[in-house]
Amino acid sequence: MAVFPVRVVPDPVLRQKSKRVRLIDGSIQRLIGNMLETMHSAPGRVGLAAPQVGTLLRVIVIGMPGEEDIALINPEIVRRTGERSVTEGCLSVPGYFGEIKRAQSVRVKGRDPSGKEIRIKAEELLAQALEHEIDHLNGVLYIDHLESMDKLHKIEPEIAQL
Asked: CA 151 to CA 155: how far, in whole Å?
């Protein structure tokens, strides 16, 4: 497996819509493995979408703290319920975080790495991660959901205490 460089704004690949995966073969399995490795090597990681590593295919991985990793092929949100304000960041928008609205819960369908159709009902952080990563597949970044630029904040480096 390999750790891929993560694409950052203004890389145009981040604004393109990803293509559906037609055949789940060894190349898709390798992509998922490399994406998982890349996600685990990144600071503050929760998820990663294939466009973030330069591949315009509908593949995402999610790693929730204390949970088994999730890999989804051709994921789609089939239902959103409720709304909440969240603080969100992104490996492709380094050095910033923003306050946006996300669903309280989502239902997502897709295929697992073996090709089996799966459905996920998610709330809170998992719902947020699913929405965030599926947005990437559609060329959408969390900063596109900002109500105003006042809701985008620069991450200030911590100053060492002497």
From this structure: 13
- Tell me the pTM: 0.93
Extract the tokens encoding 20. 């559906």
Q: Is the peptide bond before 10 cis (omega within 30 degrees of 0)?
A: yes
pLDDT digit string, tens, across residues 27-54: 999 999 999 999 999 877 799 999 999 9
Question: pLDDT at residue 160 above 60?
Answer: no
Q: Where are the beta strands (DSSP E) in the chain?
A: 47-49, 59-62, 70-81, 84-89, 96-102, 105-111, 117-123, 152-154
CATH for 132: 3.90.45.10
Q: Which of 102, 111, 92, 110 is nearest to 51 (CA)?
A: 92
Domain containing 29: what range? 12-154
Residue 5 lies in a domain: no
pLDDT in tens, 144-155: 999 998 999 998
Q: Give the residues across from 88 on adjacent strands.
A: 98
Q: Active-site residues: which are they?
A: 133
Indicate whether 115 belongs to any domain.
Answer: yes
In a domain, 2, yes or no: no
Average pLDDT over the chain, rounded to an integer: 94
Q: What gap in Å lies between CA 3 and CA 75, rounded to an integer?
A: 23
